[in-house]
């Protein structure tokens, strides 16, 4: 399906700035009509053949450029429960990238040029958000040692305690990306999202962006979500054990239990940059603006700047020598 | 290119400023250091006291002129004195106790400098005196001792080891050619004083290259940022509000014990002393070093 403007017939997309559906042609707000598609293979706007990839739930017609939503990939089992709509538009995301990489001297000149920014696309990434209940039982012995000196004698007092902790911690909305396309480590670095802006899913938010349906199930991802919170639970327990000199556990048993999960789409801007035959991907959190990316190096710049710095010290040193000789 | 200039203009600006300073100095004709200004008029201008009569009158005049030129280069009085007599009784009487034979010349030189109120800047100020006593004062080996006594800023700028180095050079020639030896003393003083004045300002090319390499490497690593992003979630990011609780939290003291250990105390200590400058019987500070021939 696609959203068409009632006024001018152009493709209406979601505008993060106004938080409304907006026609980029006539600038009309909330003027959309939903036009259903008849098949996956043809664009409902121009009829040209389209080929969404295996997991794409939203994409763009290469022929007429309208944004298409694949109905059956956001319906039934694949219907997301929640969505965080894009808060940053393309210009905001590009600005975040510029700010982050501006101070990196060795970047190629073409990086973030207007031409390459054309390739930047917003994408809704599928996540499962898990609510996890943790129960941690720790029992053992702790010692507290105190030393002091009186005269020629050093005293060491050792107190031995029986220590017991029965801790419960509840976590909510622990995210695990459900896309085989997106790198798990990168998606983990995209976090955190502000869940106050989570909304019930509405498909109109997808117009103007790419999107994916989940390609990994919640069952497959449960362990990854648990692994994310396990260090936190351990840390909370260690904090509660406090100021013992030594701790010797008799029993330590951590249980993590998934209570429920929800399927959500979270916004990410993706900028793809090709340099010397290598592809570099940059990601901007579509809500917070957090930037993830690896710098490419232009060797000519590395050599140029290093030669400048080296030459500067040599020349400045020589000039100082000459000035001192004159003085 | 524009970006390169935007990011390197500060370096080129500094170079331009340095070049400008150099140019202004050249244009101002300030090509040579014009020397120090003498501040002490309490002593006369005689700098050669050849009591041992080792030098002819012409040689004395030559050495006097040579010293006068050197003094203005370094801003210090430079005195040469020769003796050929025992100064043992004088030195012991001055100190009030027995001292090493090699130190008689030190006592005499210090007092001679003080009594004549030498010093380029002020009386008893910057300067040094070479006392060369040809009397073989050493009772065992028959050495004739000499000494360079320093005063004012020369105490620090011409230390004991540098004095001994100069005297080593002097003593190599003094028996055959005293004039040459005493010129070597004057040259040595000038060389050491100039070196102490300018060494911090004139790094060699090797040092410059090392500094430039370090500067370049440091800047390279500052700008060589290749990180892929930082984790910004904490342990409690997804903890539910009020989601942490304890069903049981107990710390029960089971028992306490105290152990004792006797501390072995050791006694002892050590001391040491240093060298450096000394004070003459006139109450003025002197440094320096000695030698023999």
Describe the structure.
The complex is a heterodimer of chains A (327) and B (293). Helices cover 23% and strands 38% of the residues of chain A. Chain A has 327 residues and is α+β, with helices and mostly antiparallel strands. Among the domains of chain A are: 126-296, no CATH class; 301-327. In chain A, strands 5, 6, 7, 8, 9, 10, 11, 12, 13 and 14 form a 10-stranded mixed beta sheet that branches. Chain A has a two-stranded antiparallel sheet with strand order 1-4. Chain A has a two-stranded antiparallel sheet with strand order 2-3. In chain A, a hairpin with a 6-residue loop joins β5 and β6. The mean pLDDT of chain A is 92. Chain B is of the alpha/beta class. Chain B is built from 8 helices and 7 strands, in the order αβαβααββααααβββ. Chain B has helices at residues 2-27, 57-74, 88-95, 104-115, 154-157, 160-173, 178-198, 205-223, and strands spanning 48-50, 77-83, 127-133, 145-151, 239-262, 278-279, 285-292. Chain B has a 6-stranded mixed beta sheet with strand order 1-2-3-4-7-6, sandwiched between helices. In chain B, α2 packs parallel to α7 (178-198), α3 (88-95) packs across α4 (104-115) and α6 (160-173) runs antiparallel to α7 (178-198). Chain B is flat, with a radius of gyration of 33 Å. The relative contact order of chain B is 0.13. β9 (153-177) of chain A pairs antiparallel with β5 of chain B.
Give the topology, please.
The complex is a heterodimer of chains A (327) and B (293).
Chain A (H helix, E strand, L loop, with lengths): L1 E4 L7 E3 L4 E3 L9 E4 L20 E5 L6 E3 L12 E2 L6 H12 L12 H4 L3 E30 L2 E25 L6 H7 L8 E2 L9 E3 L5 H24 L4 E30 L2 E8 L5 E2 L6 H28 L1
Parallel strand pairs in A: 7-12, 8-11
Antiparallel strand pairs in A: 1-4, 2-3, 5-6, 5-11, 7-10, 8-9, 8-12, 12-13, 13-14
Chain B lengths: L1 H26 L20 E3 L6 H18 L2 E7 L4 H8 L8 H12 L11 E7 L11 E7 L2 H4 L2 H14 L4 H21 L6 H19 L15 E24 L15 E2 L5 E8 L1
Parallel strand pairs in B: 1-2, 2-3
Antiparallel strand pairs in B: 3-4, 4-7, 6-7
